[in-house]
Each structure stands twice: as structure tokens, then as C-alpha cells.
Amino acid sequence: MHDSQPPRDTPEQPHADAGRGSDTGHGPDTGHGPDTGRGSDTARTSAGGAVPRAGGGVMGRLTSTVDRLSRELTRAQAQADGRALVELAKGIIVERLGVSPAEAGRQLDSLAEQSKLSVLELAADLVNQASHDRIAELAREFVAGAGEPSVGFRLRSAEAGMLGASDVQAVAQSVLEHALRPLGAQAVAIWAANSDQSLTLVGWAGFADEQEAVRWRHVPPGVPVPARRALTDRAPVAYESLAAAGLPSIGQREFSGGRLAVPAGAGGRITGVLEICWPGALPARSQSLQRQFEALAELCATALDSRPASGGAAGNGDVDPQTADLLELVHGLHDPCLVLRPELDAVGRAGDYLIDHLNPSFEDFAGRPRSAIVGARLLEAYPLAAEPGGLFEKVEHVLATGESFRSPRMDLAALVDGVPLTTRARVSISRHGTRVVVIWRPEDGAAHVAGLLQHAQRLGRIGGFEENLHTGEIAWNETLFDLHGLPSHADPIPLERLPAHAHPDDEHTIGRFLRTLLHHQRAASTAFRLQRADGIARHIRVVAEPVLDADGRIAAVRGAYQDVSAQHWTEVALAATRDQLAHSEQQAAERNRLALQLQHAIMPPSRGPLDLHDLRVAVRYRPAEKDHLVGGDWYDALALPSGQVLLCVGDVAGHGIEAATGMVALRNALRGLAATGAGPGQLLSWLNTVTHHLTDNVTATTICALYEPRTRALRWARAGHLPPLLLRDGRAGELPTVAGILLGAIDQADYEEGEIQLRPGDTLMMYTDGLIERRDRSLEESLDDLLTTAGDADGLTELDRRLDHLLRYSSSDTDDDTCLIGITVR
């Protein structure tokens, strides 16, 4: 094919035979070409309508002429699109082979004959191989998958038609004829997305009714059309039946079948929507087909960015201003403004935004210089903007949809030296071409801060003043009048008269304050007692500083008075409380010392072995670690006049001096009662009566045992106490439990007795609960541990070492005092 020849294979046959309408593409495809020799009663006009044929008259000839001219115009458009695609292929051959345009045309003809393809198909293949765009990728996928080989040809033909189109209307016509009619679509609409969330119809093709585009030239915000849904979701939206979906849209009466709305955008921006109409059901859904529609939408987005809308329907569609105009606009704004340029990643998404420009009014709310902000990325300058719902997310939404963002109160945050700084501002974000403009107006904090200061002065009882020493003019705030007990219309009191209003004892203090302030010209502070006119004395703290003029001489004094009366009386009360607490602590320490001395006087912490007839008795007493826990544990081992031996151990409830005195009373009472010769059960019964009636709310547990040396019999009774242990033949066990309530609980009680025959070598252990009690286990578990420890000690020959072993390895953790008696039969 030579340079001057038309392409020998153009798209006119497939399209003309498919029944194209006029050059504007109105009217659905009927499957029959506009054959004027069919003898039908009507003929199609250029608008796709029908007019009566006038037989063989002038009207009929005129109608035939219009049909012929329409077909010729359509053929010419197809040839022009084909020539554009062929010229692109010839340019590729010229660039790669270095030949002339005429030689490139001959090379293209020769290659087409050898590959048995049409020149147009070969041209589309060459462009696809040389390109690295979405269309080329789709073409390669279809060839690799043995798909439809004409996909790349159809998309390249649509692109070529777009390159030669003068406006978006012509782009819509090219997309429909070259790419969508082969897929069964009959009409197409291209919508432009406006910043006010409205939609503008900027291109259409395939609709028979000329007025349909006029009626739909503008869709206000909030109208639920398919294009609005695709723009909101930022994803393609498909409807199997527009009538069943119940949504309004262009051509809803003519094409009530399937609808597909695909967002049209590039570089992270959605500038419009491509809406495709089918008379019946949608074609079978597939990923490859979906990618074709996305590629067509991207072509439409390119057209929206570079071509004007159709004059008849676009109305006042948005046209992106040039960058210079945008900068001139933001320079006139009085609020801080940032111009952001999206930085696109490999897939065309905005990963971050470069702060391209700052207007003269910009001041960083974090106090950083402009040079630290301009040229930085948004997430570098304001990393906290990446928080969910933050500034970055809003900018991303505005860039993608074109929908402006307004917020009367939004929190802005910056990170400076690891410290987050925040402010609240009125924020406005809008898209202008490929740029995003962010305007913020920090809240005017002057009135708010003034209100906070007033509340702080009120709560802190602080009054400010300023006194001009040259003119004598004095300024007080309302709080200062209240502190002095003066009405607001009274004359303020100058500093030189302050001693006359102070307590006489504080005159020297105020004199030093005034000399430092006025003579030495240094800031000073002091506290004094203010004598008000109403007779009330207030404790005041005053702080002031000199104000120097240009010559370094003092011109004024400013400062503040604070009423610290409440603080003063609190300190006085606190000092009295401290004194009282120290006195109470001293008394408690004295009581504990006396209780400990009383306890140690009666029961030394350790007592060497004591021989009583054939018994060897040893005692260990372990006091509590804390002095205030001095308890009422006691023991006794005494030879009675009857020849028996009294063995007992007990524990008075509580701690301190009361427990110690109760222990002494019970121990001495039991000694006196034992002289009667009564048995252990009777002794505890009498001791319970003494405890209940003759002591002040004392309760106690005890074990009382009487040993008969002649028979080695041991009789014993218990009042709520733990049973003794018996070590015999290398084993440790408890004595049988006998019933008995603790002492002092009721006025009269009976106590059961137990009796056991001891043998030479037996060892009896009597103890208080401080030896075994633990917070983290039951009493039964503690007793089992004690039996194990006592069994281990049976191998020791000396009684003292056995007792020390039990104390050392006891598992108690309650910090209670412990009393332990060991009795060995010789």
C-alpha cells in the first residue's frame, strides 16, 4: 500500500453491513442495513427517525439522497479511523527500519499479504507490539488464550478514532462503533463528574431520540443513577435489567436491558463514568471482557482531560484550569493552603502526595518553617494524617472521585521531635485537574484562650494588675477587687500604700519586696496577711516584675495577687495532723514495747530443757516480726502439789497490749485452778467461765494436759486448739481429737477428755497455729506438711534440735507469733 492510497481493507464492511445508523449513531441495530431498494414505507433520516417515502416524487428522491449521504459519511469516518491506525503502524516501521513513509507503506502491504491479514488488522498488531499500555496487554492475553483475535484491532480502532475526534461526542461515537457494537451494545453515554457531586453528559451515541441527550445533560447530586453508583463505589456496576433495578438513566425507555457503568479515570483520579447500554441481557461476564471495558473507560478519561464536551449537551461542564491559573488563585487566599501533586505507583495509584506549593498565608500549625514543608511528601510532613478517617484518606477520596470535602471542625496532627502536636481547623479539600488543594483555617483560639484564662484566674483566686509609675494609672481585673473586698468602682490601691493594708507583723516583709522590685528593679515575690476593710484577714501571695523603658528606667510594674488562704489553713491543719499522728505513733510504739516486755517477762523466746520427774520439757517461742503484731500465745509446764505435771499451750485472739494482758490472766487462772487436783476437762470448763465473765471480751484456744509420772498416763482436753503430735518409733501422728469449744464463746461449756499411755522415748509436741498457717493452702494440707517435717526430726536425739528443726522448716507465712513445747519421756 502506497502512501497516497487509501487502506484496501477498512472497517466499512463490518459496520455498514451491521446496519449502522447515521453519523451520530442514533437508533438501535436492527440487523438490516439501510437498503433503499427494500421498498419499505419509511426511510431512516440522519437522526435515526423515519419519514414517509414519497413514491417516485421529489420527496422520495430527496430521502434517498439523505440516506446515501449518511452512508457515505459513515464510510468516510470509518476510512479516516482506519487511515489513522495505518499511519500509526507506518510510523512504527519508519522508526524501526529507518525507511521513508512511502517505503513503509509498501512494507505494510507486503507484510499483510504474507500474513494473510488485512492491512488494518496488521496495523493494529504492530501498534500493540510497540505499545505497553492496557490495550496491548489485552491483545496479548487474548492471543495467548486463543481468544478472539480482533480484540486488539477493535480497541486500537477505537483509540485511533478518539485521536482523530474533535470532541467527546465523537469519542463516544468511535467507542460505540469500533469496540462496543461487536459485543452487542447499542448505545453509550460518557458522563463527567463535577466537584459538587453532580454529573454532566458530555458524549453519547446510539440513542434514537435526539432530545434524550438534552433531557439528561445534567444530573443533580443525590439522584441514584448507575453512573452515580459507579462513581461512589469507585468500581464497575452492572445491572442485568435496568427496568428491574428501577433506576433512572438516559435511554431507559429505548434500552431497558442490561447496563454497565465503569468509572473512567487515570492516575488515581476518576473524572467520569462510561455507561454502556444493551437492548437485552448483559454479555457473559468474564475477567477479560471486564478488562476491555476498563480499557475503554480509560480512553474516555483521556478524552475528558484533553477535549471539550459536546456543545449541545455538556452545558457548563467542568474544565480543569491550568496550573498557573491554580497557583494564581491560591495566592489570593488568606487561609493556609497546600497544593498537592499525586505520586503514582506502578499500577497508577497515588501512593503519596508531594507538597508542590504553599501560598503566602501558609503557616505550619506545628511551628516549622515553610522550607521544611514545601517539597516534602504529605506523609513525611504530617505522618499522623495516615490515621483512619484522617487527612490522607480524605485527600485520596477527593482525588479519586472529584467530590469536594468540607469539614467545619477537623483534627490535624503533626509529629515534631517525636512529640505529637494537634490543632482543630476548618478544612476544605478540592481537586483541580491533576492537583489537590487543601485549605485549612485553624480555629481562632483568642476568645477561647481568654475564657480559659478567666476561669483559671477564678479557680486559682488570682488577680492581675499593672501600675504606671509615671502617670499613676492602675489597672486591676475584677478578681483583684474581690480579693481586697472592694467594689468594682473603687480606686485601686497603689503598691506604695500596700503596707498600710497588711498585718503590722508583715510590714518589713512587704518593705523588702518593694525595695527589690522598685530599687533593685528585679522581679520579686512575697506572702503577707491582707487586712481588708470588712475585717476579714486573707493570706495573699504577690508576685511582680518591673517594666523598663527604652532608657532602662522602670516605667511600670505588673504582677498578680493570689489568695492562698485555703492553702495556708490546709497547711496548718496538715501540720496539726502530722503532730497528732506522730503522737499516736509514739503511743502505739510504747504500747507495743510494753506488751513485748510483758510477754518476754512471762515467756522468754527460748527456755532450756526442764526436767519434771521423768519428763524433759523444752520451749521455743517465736514472736511476730512486726512489733504491732505482739500476740497472746502462751505456754506453761508446772509440777503440781499432787505430783502430776501440768502441760498447756494457748492462743488469745488479737494482738497488742490487750492480747498480752489477756494471756497473762488466763495463764495465771489456769495455774490456780490446777492446784485443785481437777482433771483437764474440768479445768477448761472452769477456765471458760473465767474467760467469759471476768475478762473484757477475750476469747482463746488452748490445750490442757495432766501427766501422771507413776503410770505415765497423759490425760488431756482441748478448747478449739490444734491437737498435739506424738513422735513414736520414727513416725509422727496426731493424738485423737476430742470435742471442746474455744474459751469465752459461751458462759458454760463441757470439755471431753482423752487419755494415752506414754512410753519411754516418746516425744509429744504442743504448738500454736502460727507454726503451720498459710494463706495459700488449707489447714489439712498444712498439718500434713507438719507431720512430714516432724517425722524427719525424729532422727535427732536432742529435744532442742528437734524443736529448732520444726521452727526452721515450718511452712507458715502469716507473720504470727508461735509457741512450741516439746516433751520427751525418759
TrEMBL record:
> What protein name applies here?
SpoIIE family protein phosphatase
Which SMART domains would you find in this protein's record?
ANTAR, PP2C_SIG
Ranges for the region named Disordered are 1-61
Work out whether the entry's keyword set contains Transcription regulation.
yes
Instruction: Say yes or no: keyword Metal-binding present.
Output: no
Q: Which SUPFAM superfamilies does the record match to this protein?
A: GAF domain-like, PP2C-like, PYP-like sensor domain (PAS domain)
Entry keywords, A to Z = Hydrolase, Transcription, Transcription regulation
Biased region (Basic and acidic residues) positions are: 1-20
Q: Residues in domain ANTAR? A: 66-127
Q: What spans are recorded as compositionally biased (Gly residues)?
A: 22-36
